Amino acid sequence: MQGPRVAVIGLDCAPAKLVFDDMASEMPNIHNLMGSGLHGPLASITPPITVPAWACAMTGKAPGQLGIYGFRNRKDHTYDGLSLATSDAVKEPTVWDLLGERGKKSLLIGVPPGYPPKPVEGWRISCFLTPPSAKNFTAPAELQAEVEAELGSDPYIFDIPNFREKGLEFVMEQVYAMTKRRFQVARRLIQNKPWDYFMMVEMGLDRLQHVFWQCWDPGHPKYVAGNQFESAFQNYFRYLDSEVGSLIELIPEDAVTIVMSDHGARRMEGGVCINDWLIREGYLTLSEDIDGVVPIAKAPVDWSRTMAWGDGGYYGRLFLNIKGREPQGVIEPSTYDEVRDALVARFEAMLGADGKPMGTKVHKPQDVYPEVRGVAPDLIVYFGDLDWRSVGTVGNPDIFTHENDTGPDGANHDPTGIFVMKNAPGQVNGPKAGMNLVDVGPTIMNMYGIEIPEGAVGRNFL
Which residues of the chain register pLDDT less than 50? Predict the structure, then answer.
């Protein structure tokens, strides 16, 4: 092989505090890598969501430039709800696109958004977005037979469908099985494919934290001492580290090795019912009474008397009903900024269930992105600065809840992930501050002598 080789092991949702501190003793392989390289916290994007985070990392561009603001995005200005992002949504060149133009081969395993598996110069296995009904999940198609041959009778696991509703025992079993099989396939392919760039993303840690955070964290409102899964975090972090170590052993000595995450995680205190709050504050009106809790997409909204509505998720997406933009818009475009500023002030002044200020933070897309493409939320709301999630249903008994509109969940996303790197030309080993997710792709591009694409906000941080 001529020229550099870079191998990236992505651990979705790995938090700096846990990997570097709380679970350090469970992760000797990653800490050995830290000891011989550089490491530090990695600031994620706004919002810190898996899709688009990995795409931002590998293009060096912000969510607004990609026009992707989460797993689900508004496809137009109608009231038809949100659509799922796919690999086709990423229009900007990634690291592997630029390498492919130069004849360099990439081996990609589970990098989001990776479904459908778009052809690449090299080999690609689809990501956690792959539906159970998918017939093909690799590019080229013949790679699928090699994956299946490696695993035998065990199916390759992309994700754990409806993981919040399956029960703890089932999810725990599936998290281990998914991680085991992904790394098993990665070890086979990293040895028998002539790659110039390797990248995989493992989703097990994300799923573990969302389902089991309350089992190990005494500060969580749902923690019960002595529960069956109290050691779930320690056990899985140790196992994950052993799988990472087994893969690192197969990476050539002179290759650049990176272990990173797209964002972190933190305990979730509960949920804020954004649409019930908007009803209370006079921004959203229903045309009739409802019986029970219903999704906002199915609620009888009186759009002629509604100024704003929201959607659920790890952050709140707030949309305004603008005259001439939405079908039944009521807000005059000339008052857009005034209405938006008033909502920002109200959200940030919110008191929590305990009557104290929540510390909610609100972002305007135009303030955090150099460009705003697609249909962005009018406001991005971090309830309690991400200690609380946004619940999008209507008809809840209270504004605050410890239930979830998508099933039980113990963790929210945190803006701080991890970055560990060994062998990069010119790197200074030891702790490093000030690293950002959007800098990762440009830093890797620089190693291959590739010019950073025009408009990229990311920079080489070496």
Answer: 1
